[in-house]
Design brief:
Keywords: DNA-binding, Transcription, Transcription regulation. The chain has helices at residues 11-18, 22-30, 37-50, 54-59, 78-92, 106-116, 132-141, 161-174, 190-206, 220-230, 243-255, 273-277, 289-304; strands at 66-71, 96-101, 122-126, 144-147, 156-159, 179-183, 209-213, 237-240, 265-269, 283-286, 315-317, 320-322. The chain folds into 3 domains: 11-59, 434 Repressor (Amino-terminal Domain), CATH 1.10.260; 66-159 and 291-317, Rossmann fold, CATH 3.40.50.2300; 161-288, Rossmann fold. Mean pLDDT is 90; it is low at 1-5. By secondary structure, it is α/β, with parallel strands linked by helices. A 6-stranded parallel beta sheet has the order 2-1-3-4-5-11, sandwiched between helices. A 6-stranded mixed beta sheet has the order 7-6-8-9-10-12, sandwiched between helices. The termini are far apart. 45% of the residues lie in helices and 16% in strands.
Length: 332
């Protein structure tokens, strides 16, 4: 890594010159008992040779062995799976994870990050609502990985949203549906844009007619509002941004006399437990929530230890369509 533009030598310069991880340099000066005597002597010799300031050597930050996981809505059960995967993987490496709810607000997300950065070794940000530029600023301050969002210059792990949509659209077409409406979630949600575009692309390839409505809140209430907008006469099939919205849509349309799958087929996203308890149970695209959280933390810890480059390609994990009772043949 290049020295800072002001010429000041950093622990990253020392690490590069010594052929060790930045965390090893930090531990040499803050927790020498956790570094072998030979390695510590080597790092100290290199630090002196490259001009690493003695004041910084005395005050190099110790690892807190604490990570932060930010989620956009703690009320959405989908994030429980992500957090559990993150928590178990972190625990195996001797780390704890604090869970922080940003309540679908990019402004709150930025405020929470500013407060927590001095306390943690790295950050997992799930379904961020922050602007790209703000995320890049954070990524320059602390190791960070995005979940369910891709951004050039930052590491990320996401489910294959487009692949999941294509599978759902193939299923609806096989059931004889020629029309589909996609119900938008939050405008700031990266995954919402990917899913909407995938619906349009798949519809064109399959000879279906696709339209969209929204945006709506990614909640039961948002789905109910979408049902009222669709009204008693609407398309034969609907794909909702997430399961919470799909459940609200199902109940809202039922209140208007339209039942699934008799009058309309409904597909959600996320495979939350509530979708399995409905009558009929919800057809949904299931992302690997726990694997997303586990993979994010494994990747983050590799960056903290310096064993992985800071800007790898984005990782995509496969989804699967779970066909249940809310989809069926189109009415003739």
């Amino acid at each position: 890594m290049e020295p800072r533009h002001d010429g000041r030598v950093t622990i990253y310069d020392v690490a590069a010159a010594a052929g060790v991880a930045p965390s090893t340099v930090s531990r040499t000066f803050t927790r020498p008992g956790r570094v072998s005597a030979a390695t510590a002597a080597h790092v100290r010799e290199v630090a002196a040779r490259v001009g690493y300031p003695s004041k910084d050597r005395a005050e190099a930050p110790a690892s807190a062995r604490m990570l932060a996981a930010l989620v956009s809505d703690i009320g959405n059960p989908f994030y429980a799976g992500i957090f559990r995967g993150a928590q178990l993987t972190a625990a195996d490496a001797g780390y704890e994870v604090m869970l922080l709810d940003t309540r679908e607000s990019g402004r709150r997300e930025r405020s929470v990050l500013e407060r927590v950065l001095p306390l943690v070794d790295g950050v997992v940000v799930a379904s961020s609502r922050m602007p790209d530029a703000s995320l890049r600023v954070v990524g320059r301050k602390v190791p960070l990985i995005l979940v369910n969002r891709e951004l050039r210059g930052l590491p990320s792990i996401a489910s294959d949203n487009a692949g999941g949509v294509r599978e759902a659209m193939d299923h609806l077409r096989d059931q004889g549906h020629g029309q589909v409406v996609y119900v938008h979630g939050p405008e700031a949600a990266w995954s919402d844009g990917i899913r909407a575009a995938a619906v349009r692309d798949a519809a064109a390839a399959l000879g279906m007619e696709a339209t969209t409505i929204g945006p709506f809140l990614p909640t039961f209430e948002g789905g109910w509002a979408a049902a009222i907008q669709l009204g008693r006469r609407g398309p034969s099939s609907v794909i909702a941004y997430n399961d919470l919205m799909a459940i609200g849509l199902l109940q809202g349309l039922r209140s208007l006399g339209r039942a699934a799958p008799r009058d309309v087929s409904i597909v959600g996203f996320d495979d939350i437990p509530a979708g399995r308890l409905l009558t009929p149970a919800l057809t949904t695209v299931a992302p690997p929530a726990r694997a997303l959280g586990a993979g994010a933390v494994a990747d983050l810890l590799a960056r903290i230890s310096g064993t992985r480059p800071p800007e790898p390609p984005a990782r995509l994990l496969p989804t699967r369509l779970i066909v249940r009772g809310t989809t069926g043949p189109a009415r003739g």
